[in-house]
């Protein structure tokens, strides 16, 4: 169910009925509700899309490099520590097997990555509007979905044949212990290049539109209430 569409349709019907029957209060409620719902729907759209002449729109794609940097730092600090590398090398017999990072990924705390996303939104031009609906607390329902989808994406990256083939090739080089971290960093950077802004936008967009659709609903409700008050005071 598309909350935004239904809210806009209901608001439009109320405004149309008020206009058709020449009922000023109903018309005012519908118009204000429609304006509130459309404004909030536009705000959600502007998180992901650059709108001409609207400063601050497209904030998530614009900060995509910061997002990739956070993933890179997470993998290097949590997965490829000196201790983990030593353990991996000491347990190998013959060719290097696939990295089985799934158990590690399941245990890794991705909350800082979510907090970074929340901070990005708070520092954007949407902070004032977000504060009208409880501030960053309104984004908290997204946390579990965000963490789940990011863990799935990280597992897919580390389980791919290409990723592990690159790791094995690098392990066969001389002086591997001294240079492994730098080489793994390069591998991760190459893999992150495949993590396009469109893919990340799609993952986050699905979650945010699902949960923040209520912003449009409440925008219509509060807009209608303001419209009723404005019409009532002018009666």
Mean of the pLDDT scores?
Answer: 75
Cα radius of gyration in angstroms: 24 Å
Total E-strand runs: 0
Q: Give the low-confidence spans.
A: 93-97
Number of domains: 1
Largest sheet entry: none
In terms of quaternary structure, what is this?
A: single chain
Structural key phrases:
235 residues, mainly alpha, 13 helices
Notes on the protein architecture:
There is one protein chain. By secondary structure, this protein is mostly helical. The chain has one domain. The chain is 75% helix and 0% strand. It has 13 helices and no strands. Helix 1 (3-20) packs parallel to helix 13 (213-234), helix 2 runs antiparallel to helix 13 and helix 10 runs antiparallel to helix 11. The longest helix is centred in the first third of the chain and has 25 residues, at 24-48. Mean pLDDT is 75; it is low at 93-97.
Summarize the structure.
This protein has 235 residues and is mainly alpha-helical. It has helices at residues 3-20, 24-48, 59-62, 64-78, 82-90, 102-107, 111-122, 127-131, 143-159, 161-171, 176-193, 197-211, 213-234.
How would the blueprint of this fold be written?
Elements: H1 3-20, H2 24-48, H3 59-62, H4 64-78, H5 82-90, H6 102-107, H7 111-122, H8 127-131, H9 143-159, H10 161-171, H11 176-193, H12 197-211, H13 213-234
Helix pairs in contact: 1-2, 1-13, 2-13, 4-11, 10-11
